[in-house]
Each structure stands twice: as C-alpha cells, then as structure tokens.
Amino acid sequence: MSFMLGSGWAGSAHVAFRTLAVQEPFSDYTLRAEFHWRLNELDGVDLEERKPGPDPSFQLSVLEKGRNRELLVETLTWFRERWESWGTH
After folding, report:
1. pLDDT at 37
2. pLDDT higher than 80, residue 12
3. Minimal CA–CA distance to 76: which of 29, 41, 24?
C-alpha cells in the first residue's frame, strides 16, 4: 500500500494487490481476500477486486470518518503480523 499526499490522485492510498499476489505469504488468495475485506470495512471505502486492471485506491480523507483511522491501524497491524509470522516458518 502506498500513500500519496495532496489532492486529486494524490491524497489517496493505492493498494497493490497485483504485487501482493506474487509475494509470500500474500500469494495465498485467502490472505489477500481478508486484507481486501478488512480495508472495505472502513466507512467510505469500497475497493473492487479487479482482474486485470489497475490496483484500487481510496481517498485518505476517509480517515477522518468515525473509527476509520483505528480500523486502518488494526488492518495494517494484521498485515504486518501475517508477514512476520510467515518469515518465522
């Protein structure tokens, strides 16, 4: 995931699902699907699963809504934990 600060295309988070698809442990579709689902839990985020095509993005302004910042931190923590536990096997 990359964050582009500013306005327009900038001011968004780009989620590189295609890159994840070839990177362990996220080459496992179930992990990518859960990551996708967790991101879509943020109010105002509706990432479509695209095959083929550009990876999805969402506006950073959604982080101003309700618990979205907390949910994003939880999601990125979950992501990191999957990554770290894979490396210890």
Report:
1. 96
2. yes
3. 41
CA distance 41 to 72: 9
Q: How large is the angle between the packed helices 29-40 and 68-87, nearest 10 degrees?
A: 160
Amino acid at 8: G
Backbone φ and ψ of 14, nearest 5°: -100, 125
Q: Tell me the C-alpha distance between 29 and 13, whole Å.
A: 21
**How far is residue 72's CA from residue 75's CA, in Å, rounded to a whole number?**
5
Confirm if 48 and 88 have CB atoms less than 8 A apart: no
Residue-level pLDDT at 29: 92
